[in-house]
User: Fold this.
Amino acid sequence: MIKVFIAEGDFGSNALFEIFEYKGKEAIGVSSLASQFFKKVEDPSEADWFFVPVFITSLTSPDGQNFIREFSELGTSLGKPVGVFSNSDYLTNPGTDSVWIFSPGTYASLEKLVELPAIIPFDPIIKWFDGQWKPLSKENSNTLGFCGQATLHPLKALKDYFKMFQVRKEIQSGNSPFLYVPFFLPVWERARLLGLIKKKKTLKSDFILRQKYKGGLGSEQHALQTEKEFFENIERNLFTVCLRGSGNYSVRFYQTMAMGRIPVLIDTDSNLPYEERIPYQELIVRVPYADRGKVDVYIQKFLERKSNEDLKKIQSRCREIWKKAFQHPGSIEFFANKLKSIASV
Assistant:
């Protein structure tokens, strides 16, 4: 049981991280989902962790950042680790380097950042395949899929370029709510990478390239059809290319795990959730960004000495890990264990 001391403030109805919930107009406590692993304490000296319970995207004003600093100073004075949560694609700046930031899209080269999984609100096998999951055999081992937004259209690239330029300029001038944003144009990068992969003779590419996110706005029927095509693409390919979006993480990575298929992660200074407990090296293909043009080489190395049964077991493990570590309630237990490992150092 992890004892938590929760910051109190005028948070309005701002969103809380999932281990917390509103207990009235102002009081915040541990959520019923997390009560098996967490306990709120009123005496800060008894706590294992200090937490700001709201996502700090709502605390980017000078007053908000001052609130975080004062709370973190209390925790630091008592020798307690202090945690905050960011839920934007770009990491939110807490205004102090004395806190741990928990978020999807962290960077391995930066300290005190902890990767959280992107939660998918449904099980795609149940929603789109009647709950019937089947692994692919080794004869499909050269199939590589992708379905999503990827384009080299110059107007889209120019629009994204100027947006990125402005965001980075604001960070450099100290007028941004964001902490760190490296220069990266995800839609253009995806299209360029997929174009390179299509030339690989050892791979059978199955790519559906969208000009707009999720195929663009449209009717509910259009949205459902686009989603169905997305998951069908993952289902029929042993491997799926997973390259980051605006944030330094890929929701497609988790969707591929959920489908019981093998992600090919293009590593852009990436962290993965709970790496100390999940043997990713046995389950996924991890390609350094600098080697992204050698995806075929990394896939072939992954396949070395793996039998048909080995590949079926890997697919099964991917799906099981998604269910146990990246969905509730198992994700709460994994999060609690991560907090214990940080506090014990």
Notes: Residues 154-173 form the longest helix (20 residues). The chain has two domains: 2-118+333-343, 124-326. Residues 124-326 form a domain with the Rossmann fold fold (CATH 3.40.50). DSSP finds ten helices and 13 strands in the chain.
